[in-house]
Predict the 3D structure of the following.
Amino acid sequence: MRSDAGRLTTLAVAAVALAAAACGGDGGSAVTPSGAGSSAGGSGAGASGGGPSAAAGGEGGRSATGPLPEEQPAPAEGSGVADPLTNSLHDHGAPVSTGSASTAGCSSPRGPEVGPVEEMDRCVDRYAGWVTHAADGGGLARVGVCGAGRDRTVRRGRRLRRRRAAAEALCGLVHPELDGAACVEQMAELRSFGIQTVADVLALAADEHHRDVPLMAALLGHGSVACGGADRWKLQAPEGFLDRYVAAYNAYKARSSSPPQCKKRIVVSVALYTGIDDPGADGVAAANGCWTYERISKPNSEWKICNYDGTVHHQDGTRWVYDDTNTAHDASTDKSRINACKQGVPGRGYVYMTNRGSGWPKRVTEGVEVHFAEIYSGQYTVADQLGTWKSGGKPGEPMVNFGEPSTSASVIGDVTAEVCATVGDGGYFGVYVYPESLRGGRMSAMVEALNGCTGK
């Protein structure tokens, strides 16, 4: 992965223009795939390692009299690279479980938006041969390559040509064997080359986006994954770009599977000091698409974790959490620590609150996205303060403790169902996990209870 921010920005600017070539730019006509001359691992256009010349029949994709018709390979067999296990229809701000940068670090969850399904149908109908080979070769889900083509602001006119310098620089990164000017012409004229280049860009930057859909869009639109945008995503990207990209992804998911039917959508925020299994992993029930989750842990450098005693983990984190306030603490010290923790951090911040007999104290409210009320009184209790929390007006989002090995799957399922019922649409369900990891049947119990709580 290249670390030069300027080069990556140039790459992404050009990639947005190239996305027009991938799926429907300027109203191009369909191209019939050919079963001859290419396979999933071959050298035809869009195949892994393949260039545009094979598709066009000559060097640079041109003949002496002009460009030849493009011939794309038959679609690759199978379903390609799977989405991450937790990707269903994507909410605004709903995180995925990679433990990496997630949209939740910048924005709040919203209901998912679904773009016109016919746009994705058109991409599949016209470009399945190129898209499947390019995505599979880059280790990408195929929908991520098709989804890049929905930016109408790019598709109008010839903005690709006006971004010639950026496009030429892009070629130097992902196609160093080609002259920049000639490469720009191929990007404008050959859809096979445009599709392959979009896939190459996303594959090159995999360490940036971790296959999280909004982060892929932010990378293509801005050049890096960074909080601070003015829209609801709070990710830096051209206005409306993330909405269009994610809506296109959601359209494909809706096309290929039934959208989840949800009573409500929530975020499960896990204070993870040991481990948990992914929903849908071997031996674990799958999530229903109505809830997503994030992991907050000291080994995760993206979280700036601050403690009352003044210790700080990951000073340069892009999100922050303060652990914790309670009435046994000096109030002014709590306030000072929280304000110092959030200082200069672009993403969202949380405060954990502990009840030591006098309630859950909110020391600071400005700049705090969520206050979590730990509704367990100690390490060996699960949710013994639930009644007190309810009668006290629900001061903060509830956090339970599933960290002890003696906490059975049955207890986990029952407590999850009871506490989840108190969380509103768009709310949070906190889970503390230490010292015992949440795996197998115990994790399934929580997943199944969350599915029952959120699904219709």
About this structure: The longest strand covers residues 266-272.
